[in-house]
């Protein structure tokens, strides 16, 4: 569907809100309001991604490294596949409700910036799996081949060491991925800026608000963990909630110049 000839006003979003340690709760509240106002696109995303995760879990259930790689890839790919929900939240901010047709139009647009960003995230996920495999293989005295081996010989051991280092390493590798994408992904959907500028803006937002953004990263991790702990059923609601809330985080953390904002779809 061709874009309209006029761009809706974005003056209300031109000046970002003050961000503090309570902002993540505010973003979640706004994201929940968007989900309630226009639930169909979000729930479709949630169902499809939860089903995809369940398929990965079934396919790799007895092979730990395949399972670790599959779920790392899932956590990396899920934000990319949920980018269409940023358009849903953007439309909600102008009083419009859009359906899956507009979301699909974003996927079919073949935006090379999103493709490049997705490939970069995929490389980051692959790097984590290889690093994790190297750490556990070199440190563990017992071969880790199945998920139960990881649980028994890494997670549940009494001695401090491997599991704690593994978690710390994961956090250290996840931090730059979060800093690079938390603002960049919605910005790439909302504007015409190149990937490099979006990533720089994302890093600047995190550097300017370290405590709120740390809390936001922890909040996302906890919600995703809860979703997985419910046999992935919780992801049906939590994935669109996080996506909508991430849009509002982007709006509060950046100045959106009207000259580079993409027009709404008719």
Automatic annotation (TrEMBL):
InterPro entries on file: DUF2189
Keywords on record: Membrane, Transmembrane, Transmembrane helix
Keyword ATP-binding: no
This protein's record includes keyword Transmembrane helix: yes
Residues spanning the membrane: 40-58, 64-86, 114-145, 165-189, 210-243
Superkingdom of origin: Bacteria
Pfam families according to UniProt: DUF2189
UniProt protein name: DUF2189 domain-containing protein
Originating organism: Hydrogenophaga crassostreae
């Amino acid at each position: 569907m061709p874009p309209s000839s006029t761009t809706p006003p974005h003056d209300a979003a031109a000046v970002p809100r003050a961000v503090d340690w309570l902002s993540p709760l505010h973003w979640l509240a706004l994201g929940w309001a968007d989900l309630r106002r226009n639930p169909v696109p979000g729930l479709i995303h949630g169902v499809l991604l939860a089903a995809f995760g369940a398929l990965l879990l079934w396919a790799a259930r007895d092979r730990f490294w395949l399972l670790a790689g599959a779920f790392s890839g899932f956590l990396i790919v899920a934000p990319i596949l949920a980018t269409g929900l940023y358009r849903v939240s953007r439309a909600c901010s102008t009083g419009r409700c859009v359906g899956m047709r507009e979301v699909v139009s974003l996927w079919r647009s073949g935006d090379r910036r999103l493709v490049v960003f997705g490939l970069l995230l995929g490389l980051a996920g692959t790097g984590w799996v290889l690093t994790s495999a190297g750490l556990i293989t070199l440190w563990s005295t017992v071969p880790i081949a199945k998920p139960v081996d990881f649980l028994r010989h890494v997670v549940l051991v009494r001695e401090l060491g491997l599991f704690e280092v593994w978690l710390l390493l994961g956090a250290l590798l996840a931090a730059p991925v979060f800093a690079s994408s938390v603002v960049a992904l919605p910005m790439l959907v909302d504007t015409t800026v190149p990937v490099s500028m979006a990533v720089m803006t994302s890093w600047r937002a995190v550097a300017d608000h370290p405590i709120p953004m740390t809390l936001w990263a922890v909040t996302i991790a906890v919600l995703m963990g809860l979703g997985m702990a419910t046999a992935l059923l919780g992801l049906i609601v939590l994935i669109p909630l996080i996506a909508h809330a991430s849009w509002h985080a982007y709006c509060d953390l950046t100045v959106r110049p009207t000259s580079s904002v993409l027009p709404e779809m008719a």
